């Protein structure tokens, strides 16, 4: 089997570390791993397949001889450095928002549109974490019954805002439980411990946040469904890892919960967990560390007079399927 020289830009971040771990766990054919990060992380050692790999500085000349460059260093870094990777002959798989809506850049979820990855011109975009978790669960139903409209509420873990937000959740919780009211609020816009708030990313002119609009625009692009209607409210919750979503769907054709369970039980990347009477349903604590998106609470929309509406609840690991795993799966397609 051919092996590849892989660069990971942003290797010391939460997603970057999971990229390294996922490459190793999935036995990706790595000939050489080149971890890249900012100047302050240069010289740090990361474990890969039992060896210490020294972190190098991300720069214009970092990609000579690289076959695939996995980027998770933020949109500004991607815009600055991805072109140098492509010019050096690498294929960039970018986890930021920098290129997602570029018409010349494929936006790929391997369980949904793997064929789009082959149409790249040097860059492939990894979708937003919430969008990935949504489309893995929704696309199999869309293929069978044609999705017309989706109303979503997300319950997004601190991990979605990075390692500093996870630390902030832990430190705030410890202080509150110890009776200390002096809390540091810096990584997130509000106190997160024992709280939640409907504010992820910046607000736009229409009253939605950028995170909420990503569910619409990215969902349409990935599923090749330009007429899909989506309304979303994204909420940060005091959970360390794994996002959850309540999804209300309207289809062109009638669909029953039994049909949905049958479809989802065979769907790639989906774990069906739908037995509320036995207290079995999706939860972030169960999705953490898992590759699959957990789907359950499948029920007919009782607000409708027909059977074209369905409600489901999903949980998926934001750092894995929502980021690192999806990127490595794209690399596997290549």
Features:
334 residues; alpha/beta; Rossmann fold; Dihydrodipicolinate Reductase, domain 2; 2 domains; 6-stranded parallel beta sheet; 6-stranded mixed beta sheet; 8 helices; globular
Protein model, in words:
- The protein has 8 helices and 14 strands.
- With about 325 residues, it is α/β, with parallel strands linked by helices.
- The protein folds into 2 domains: about 5-125 and about 325-334, NAD(P)-binding Rossmann-like Domain (Rossmann fold, 3-Layer(aba) Sandwich), CATH 3.40.50.720; about 130-320, 2-Layer Sandwich (Dihydrodipicolinate Reductase, domain 2), CATH 3.30.360.
- The strands form 3 sheets. A 6-stranded parallel sheet has the order 5-2-1-6-7-8, sandwiched between helices.
- α1 (about 15-25) crosses α8 and α3 packs across α8 (about 320-334).
- The chain is globular, with a radius of gyration of 20 Å.
- The two termini are about 15 Å apart.
Beta-strand portion reads: 15-25%
Structural class designation:
alpha/beta
* Largest sheet composition: 6 strands, parallel
What is the overall silhouette?
globular
Question: Which stretches are low in confidence, meaning pLDDT under 50 for 5 or more residues running?
Answer: none
Distance between the termini: 14 Å
| Helical content class | 25-40%
Report the strand count: 14
Radius of gyration: 20 Å
Within CATH, the superfamily of the largest domain carries the name Dihydrodipicolinate Reductase, domain 2
CATH topology of the largest domain: Dihydrodipicolinate Reductase, domain 2
Secondary-structure element pattern, one letter each: EHEEEEEHEEHEHHEEHEHEEH
Overall mean pLDDT: 97
Query: Treating each run of at least 4 consecutive H or I residues as one helix, how many helices?
Result: 8
Domain unit count = 2
């Amino acid at each position: 089997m051919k092996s590849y020289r892989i660069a990971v830009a942003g290797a010391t971040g939460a997603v970057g570390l999971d990229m390294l771990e996922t490459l190793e766990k999935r036995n990706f054919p790595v000939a050489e791993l080149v971890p890249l990060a900012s100047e302050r992380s240069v010289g740090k050692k990361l474990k890969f397949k039992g060896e210490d790999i020294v972190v190098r500085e991300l720069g214009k000349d970092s990609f000579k001889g690289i076959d695939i460059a996995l980027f998770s260093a933020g949109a500004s870094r991607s815009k600055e450095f991805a072109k140098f990777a492509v010019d050096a002959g690498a294929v960039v798989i970018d986890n930021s928002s920098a290129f997602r809506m570029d018409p010349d850049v494929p936006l790929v979820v391997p369980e949904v549109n793997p064929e789009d990855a082959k149409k790249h011109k040097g860059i492939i975009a990894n979708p937003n974490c919430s969008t990935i978790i949504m489309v893995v669960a929704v696309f199999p139903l869309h293929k069978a019954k044609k999705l017309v409209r989706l109303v979503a509420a997300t319950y997004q873990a601190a991990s979605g805002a990075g390692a500093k937000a996870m630390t902030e959740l832990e430190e705030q919780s410890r202080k509150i439980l110890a009776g200390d009211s002096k809390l540091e609020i810096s990584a997130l816009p509000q106190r997160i411990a024992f709280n939640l708030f409907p504010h992820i990313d910046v607000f736009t002119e229409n009253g939605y946040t950028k995170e909420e609009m990503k569910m619409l625009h990215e969902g349409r692009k990935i599923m090749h469904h330009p007429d899909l209607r989506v309304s979303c409210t994204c909420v940060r919750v005091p959970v360390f890892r794994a996002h959850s979503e309540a999804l209300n769907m309207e289809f062109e054709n009638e669909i029953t919960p039994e049909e949905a369970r049958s479809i989802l039980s065979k769907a790639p990347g989906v774990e069906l967990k739908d037995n509320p009477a036995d207290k079995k349903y999706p939860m972030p604590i169960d999705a953490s560390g898992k590759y699959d998106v957990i789907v359950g609470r499948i029920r007919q929309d009782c607000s409708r007079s027909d059977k074209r509406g369905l409600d489901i609840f999903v949980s998926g690991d934001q750092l894995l399927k929502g980021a690192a795993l999806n990127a490595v799966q794209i690399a596997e397609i290549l």
